[in-house]
Amino acid sequence: MSAPVALITGAAGGIGAATAEALHEAGWRTTGLDLRPSLTDLPLIADVADRGAVADAVDRAAGRFGRLDLVVTAAGYYEDGVDVGDITTGQWNRMLAVALGGTVNTCAAALPHLLAAGTGTVVVISSELALAGSTGDLHYVAAKGAVLGFAKSLALEVADSGIGVNIVAPGPTDTPLLAPDSPWRDPAYLATLPLGRLVTPAEVAHTVLHLATEGRMYCGDVLSPNAGAVI
């Protein structure tokens, strides 16, 4: 039997890159979908906010490997330090287009392949902030909250089709998305976390791997590696 195939959006950096690496080390073949080349078996360039480009990329991956077993929607970006009244229309629209639109576009393109096979897994990356709320980054939190609701609804829609859909909602993670002066890196904030540190991308990646390999009992569930930020 050929090795399983995973498609990861946002695979060129951060959580997406760590997920691609963990899957590769576990014997998976990987396709990375990003604005930049990724260290995957099939690196593809596309903006996840572009539904047509995403559909073409997903079809290319499925055609190349002959199957699609796992989809991980990790593409995204983070902005903080913006009060709600100062968030521009462009900032709102772009955040929603990438975080929510990218998730919807990827799932819409991949589901026909998964449904045809009668099996597969979708892991949607949301955020711990979608569970607890935050200040200074409301457009990010709103988009990740919408992603959470979308994934739960999709899980219900396809549960009887052999497709598992679940959510990983990491807490502040030690990736380049967090600037050196980010408040999430402030020692005073880290001291409030029971584990006293940021989550690593590898820890988030192994949560995804768990869902992909041992997670058949989950349906629309949220796993949140967050160092105790939300208990």
TrEMBL record:
This protein's record includes keyword Oxidoreductase: yes
TM stretches of this protein: none
Domain of life of the native organism: Bacteria
Record's signal peptide: none
Molecular function (Gene Ontology), one example: oxidoreductase activity
Enzyme Commission number(s): 1.-.-.-
Enzyme class: oxidoreductase
InterPro entries: NAD(P)-bd_dom_sf (IPR036291), Sc_DH/Rdtase_CS (IPR020904), SDR_fam (IPR002347)
Record keywords, A-Z: Oxidoreductase
Family statement: Belongs to the short-chain dehydrogenases/reductases (SDR) family.
Protein name listed in UniProt: SDR family oxidoreductase
Species annotation: Streptomyces violaceochromogenes
Taxonomic placement: Bacteria, Bacillati, Actinomycetota, Actinomycetes, Kitasatosporales
